[in-house]
């Protein structure tokens, strides 16, 4: 065994790395941790001041938080390029502090801005113009923490994520999306149209370059379900995902480029304020209308809950005459997947054409299929009318994958 001489001096090889490498290493930790490295040695004293990214995250009350942020902004090397800025708090902060961070980033040609604001004094007001911003993620910790500008001029913006925003005639006129001509990805999570005494009824999403659209958990009270809608005008759309309670979504143009579609809906089992049978029927009609507009898709993922909702319409094939000529891959998705199986398309088609086909098909989990440490259910029920609607209308279908969910305590 080779021994190391006792008199050999230990060499700090990390400190000998160039500043560009050190700042890259520090960019993987939050800003407070990066600043603390200045106490290591003289070599590290000012390394953090050239960080290409700032990450201010504090989940609890800290009286020194604001002073720390201001100190970082004042001591940072103003000639260093800033690519990413994250600001996330779960406690009430002064909106002026958030605005100072955002303005600092915009003045340093920021590329990626992610803000989660919790402000009760007044909403944070954001700049409307940026020629460098490419990614923007805004999260309202409360409904009025961040004010949504009526318009944006961001020619380089490619990805926009908005969470917990309420559109109204005071903050929306359609120019917020049209002012981002390069936008490729748009995610709207837990957003809504303000209901009380508001004239806005339709949110228009338009963009010639938009490729990916996700509408997640859109909030629409059932009593406003028929007078509010989302209109999408994106002829180049390639991927669409919808999750949550269904809301009226309409595509105003033919989608020739659509590739992947994922629909994951759920409908309350009971509600004293509305007729649930009517709601389920209306939900089914909206889903069929969506699929009709998305008929050029190549890969379709439907949650098991969505399939259950569709199955409640007995004459589904009569009501839905869509033909999916380009559909190649079909997947039935579970909430907590433990295993999956690939079903033979021809076999399933022959079963569905048989006069003895049951109303619900029981799909057993084959032996030897890959499983996780959790126990999956041994079988699931798929309404035969849904399978008929999808498979008999998809002449080029190649694969059908069914996911099996985790077994619950009630099922065990």
What does it look like?
The protein is an alpha/beta fold. 21% of the residues lie in helices and 26% in strands. It has ten helices and 22 strands. The strands form five sheets. The protein has a 13-stranded mixed sheet with strand order 1-2-3-5-7-9-12-14-16-17-18-22-19. Helix 3 links the parallel strand 1 and strand 2 (84-89). The longest helix has 18 residues, at 276-293.
Name a few traits of the molecule:
alpha/beta; 412 residues; 10 helices
Structure in a nutshell:
The protein is an alpha/beta fold and 412 residues long. It contains ten helices and 22 strands. 21% of the residues lie in helices and 26% in strands.
What is the topology?
Blueprint lengths: L18 H8 L4 H6 L16 E6 L6 H11 L8 E6 L5 H13 L4 E6 L6 E2 L9 E6 L5 E2 L11 E5 L2 E2 L7 H4 L6 E5 L2 E2 L8 E5 L5 E5 L12 E5 L5 E6 L4 E3 L8 E6 L10 H18 L5 E5 H7 L5 H4 L9 E5 L3 E7 L1 H9 L6 E5 L14 E5 H8 L7 E7 L7
Parallel strand pairs: 1-2, 2-3, 3-5, 4-6, 5-7, 7-9, 8-10, 9-12, 11-13, 12-14, 13-15, 14-16, 16-17, 17-18, 18-22
Antiparallel strand pairs: 19-22, 20-21
